[in-house]
Amino acid sequence: MKKLHQFLLLLVSFLCLTGFFPAQAEGTDVDWAVSIPLNTASETAKQQVTVKTFIDGDTVHFFVPESVIPGGVLKARFLAVNTPETTGKVEEYGKKAADFTRSRLENAHSIILESETDAWQKDTTGDRYLAWVWYQEAEGQPWRNLNIEILQMGLARPNSSANNRYGDICTKAIEQSKARKLNLYSGQKDPDFYYGDAIELTLKELRSNPEAYNGKKVAFNGVITMNSDNSVFLESYDAETDMYFGLSVYYGYNLNGKGMEILTVGNEARIVGTMQYYEAGETWQVSGLNYRMMKPRDPGNIQKLSDGHQPAYVLTAPETFLHGKVTLQGEETSQEFDWAQLAVATSVEMKGLFVESIHTTRDGNSSQNGAMTLSCKAGDHPIQVRTTVFYDENKALISEDAYLGKTIDVKGIVDSFEGTYQIKVFLPSHITVHP
Fold first, then answer.
1. DSSP-assigned beta bridge partners for residue 158
2. Mean pLDDT by 10 residues, the chain (435 residues)
3. CA-CA distances (angstroms) from residue 344 to 52, 197, 239, 327, 421?
4. How far is it, in rounded angstroms, from Cα 339 to Cα 326?
5. Which residues, 6+ apart, have CB-to-CB distance to 185 below 8 Å?
């Protein structure tokens, strides 16, 4: 019996060595992210980069030279991985995946992007480039492959993981994460995911205390004032402060026709979704909307409450826009805010702006190609106006000549860009040029 036992041990050892059984036993994981070197001499395209904006676990925007991508920003979609969503909808382990990617790249000494082939290739959206992401934790340290690291942490589902230049390693990383029952493969609830019912509140409460509801499901009412880029803006009047409070709501591609009808401009709607900070837009937003057509009264549904409303387009003085303050009284304490901070996402009107200069976005690969930023003056007050891409009735692009050196009145939505509050105008008809 002893000899048989020794023979079986030898047989198992032989099978492990030959790869018939997995080599990793409990507690002996392989760090697959560093198991392959970055081959700087290979035929693939490579570029050293820095982070511009974190989007989610598998999408990050990087600064690159203009010679690589016109406009100097490469929107990277990580190859081989599909992390849970945190933008258009919010899924379990999505926040953990996004936080993991941020923690690795935010503290990296160096970052290099690598293409799958000898040139940068776009994904199916036509706006993002497929990339392998390599990073060094410190100078002289080995390069780590973040795509593979995400897979071995169990923070992504495979996305054609076996059919690429690092397919074998990707497969081993996935097998290891499943064997270790990590995150998506744990069978456990995500501790960072909000499983509770929607919190019923007002836009005023949501706007003045956004951090308190970050990652939570919320429900509120508001009038829809604008629809643009898969988002709508809602606002609601508060009599105590005599001002409107608003929010951007991202619906993405998740709603059917009936759901989209609810989001028609002029409707008052009940919105149910997840509160989050959208870094690329520098704004708080709600996303993850649902509409179940067979259960229209489902409390998780968005709902139409009434119609026939108009955006407020509050006539606003430049002094108020730039320097106004609002004090909100709580049960025990009060808090002071900048007026514009609380007015973000609400509709305003401003008159008598003289356009001193205009910057036009010129990037043929961007949907913003032709959008303008108007630097204006109202007396001594500098006001920034941002437009979408404007076309006239003949479908010709409206250029700087239409506004430069002229006095204008504008209607738009309060927005923020690089820390500066501005008025974003979505329609050419919302800019009136003085004769």
1. 81
2. 41 39 54 96 97 95 94 94 88 95 96 97 91 97 98 96 95 97 96 91 95 95 96 95 96 87 97 92 91 82 95 97 91 87 97 97 78 96 97 94 98 94 97 97
3. 23, 27, 18, 16, 8
4. 6
5. 154, 177, 178
Can you tell me the distance from the alpha carbon of 420 to that of 406, in angstroms, rounded to the nearest whole number?
23
Segments making up each domain of the chain, as ranges:
32-185, 199-306, 314-433
DSSP one-letter string for 280-336: GGTEEEEE-----TT-TT-TTS-EEEE-------EE--HHHHHH-EEEEE-SS-EEE
Query: Closest by alpha carbon to 232, among 289, 280, 315, 312?
Result: 289
Rounded to an integer, what distance in angstroms lies between the CA atom of residue 172 and that of residue 331?
A: 56
Q: How far apart are the C-alpha atoms of 299 and 270, rounded to whole Å? A: 10
168: tokens are 């074998």
**CATH number, domain 32-185, options 2.40.50.90, 3.30.365.10, 1.10.150.170, 2.40.110.10:** 2.40.50.90
pLDDT tens-digit map of 291-324: 888 787 788 899 999 999 999 999 999 999 999 9
Q: What is the pTM of this model?
A: 0.78
- The pLDDT assigned to 16 comes to 39
Query: Please, which residues bridge with residue 34 across strands?
Result: none
Handedness of CA 177, 178, 180, 184 (dihedral sign): positive
